[in-house]
Specification:
The structure is a homodimer. Chain A is an alpha/beta fold. Helices cover 34% and strands 28% of the residues of chain A. The complex binds adenosine-5'-triphosphate (ATP) (2 copies) and magnesium ion (2 copies).
Chain lengths: 224, 224
């Protein structure tokens, strides 16, 4: 379902003289329904790779095929539709909307998919319960603990029932018990046929996946 | 060096009807030079406790003695001096200044302590090297990976050579190798006689400390 061909990513900041080659020619194929982990040292390019897979960023060179379509040939509307309907993304730094409550944060993506109000509320509350935050649904992000914010970020990625889930360090701020609850939900998603790709530093998380792709310095070091 | 007596913390958000009792009467003593870990489930009150210890927040009731002084009786200048000189704080969400480079982020606390420019630069660069970020010193936070941002947050907490280091989940975004590098520096700080208190979900981190304080639901569940 996902295919990268010799993808290079170079970050440049014109004024600051910053130039970093974060991905150095990555070639990778992930089939529909796979359960893969991306591991590697801090700074090795994991988030960069996930952002490209999630259509949040574009390669500097090389090609990205999603569902056999060259993503660079899609227009903004098509990309936006893919991001909204097919992909769920859990950000390493959560990216919650600070002015909205937990409930509003979860209803927003459903609103953009044109779901009616009662359905939005029901779906949002169901996911809030799944991640154990029912009694916090009226809090704003800064009124939550770090691990609670992380769980909201996870719930939000699931709210549109995505075919592909991309999760960047989903358990970094969670105690082991809560982390296992979340991972069981990811297992379940994959058992339903969805493609799940997790970036994690935690080897116990990576071991639950059926394939481990290891990055070092922007390249694939091992894959299996 | 640190003593809490029946400390209660209640968060209230007037308009939103949010009221959460995060700490329910905590009584705790930590001696100078101790190496303690605070563990517990997500939402159990660890960051709240650390914020009070770090003079970043005040108890709703109960007393906090730091170096035998009742913190609630100190004025803003005295508090500011304690935070600037005696305490180093690593935030769970890093709290880096987004418009400043890594180098500037580290020089800023030194500037407020009145250190001259050449000394600031030397100290900042020394710490940047200690956390392995020499070739990223001119980047801004959004131009860094998650684990790199975390390492800057750690370096910044150490830059004023604090007597007490409080670290909230310092390795949550780090691969195990980089995490161990950081923990070895915390071991070293403690060996020099400083008080080190780490909040962590990672039992391997907690085990390096000589004392583990476990929180559940805003209370001390075990301590030893
Ligand atoms: N500003 C706030 N307003 C209301 N409630 C809050 C606020 N900050 C934290 N809380 C609540 O207080 C409780 C304790 O939060 P705290 O951040 O101390 O937890 P924690 O143990 O650090 O959790 P984690 O391991 O997830 O970081 C949580 O249930 C949280 O929802
Ligand atoms: N906007 C940017 N501008 C310049 N360099 C960047 C930018 N974003 C990331 N980088 C650099 O690209 C490299 C890869 O970053 P990336 O975030 O993909 O790493 P990562 O593997 O996710 O690391 P971590 O495990 O610490 O989260 C890092 O060395 C980082 O400094
Ligand atoms: Mg990352
Ligand atoms: Mg916390």
């Amino acid at each position: 379902v996902v295919r990268l061909d010799n993808v290079v990513k170079i970050y440049r900041t014109p004024g600051a003289g910053v130039e970093v080659c974060a991905l150095r020619g990555l070639t990778l194929s992930i089939q529909r329904g796979e359960y893969a982990a991306i591991v590697g040292p801090s700074g090795s390019g994991k988030s960069t790779l996930l952002n490209i897979l999630g259509c949040l960023d574009r390669p500097t060179s090389g090609t990205y095929w999603l569902d056999d379509r060259d993503v660079s040939r899609l227009d903004d509307d098509e990309l936006s539709d893919i991001r909204g309907r097919r992909i769920g993304f859990v950000f390493q730094s959560f990216n919650l909307i600070p002015t909205q409550t937990v409930l509003e944060n979860l209803e927003t993506p459903l609103f953009y998919q044109g779901r009616p109000p009662r359905e939005r509320r029901a779906q949002a509350l169901a996911l809030i319960e799944k991640v154990g935050l029912t009694d916090r649904h009226h809090h704003r992000p800064h009124e939550l603990s770090g691990g609670q914010q992380q769980r909201v970020a996870i719930a939000r990625a699931l709210v549109n029932d995505p075919a592909i889930l991309l999760a960047d360090e989903p358990t970094g701020n969670l105690d082991s018990k809560t982390g296992v609850l979340i991972l069981e939900q990811l297992d379940e998603l994959n058992a339903q046929g969805r493609t799940v790709i997790i970036v994690s530093h935690d080897i116990n998380v990576a071991k639950r996946c059926r394939r481990i792709i290891e990055l070092r310095d922007g390249q694939i070091y091992s894959d299996g």
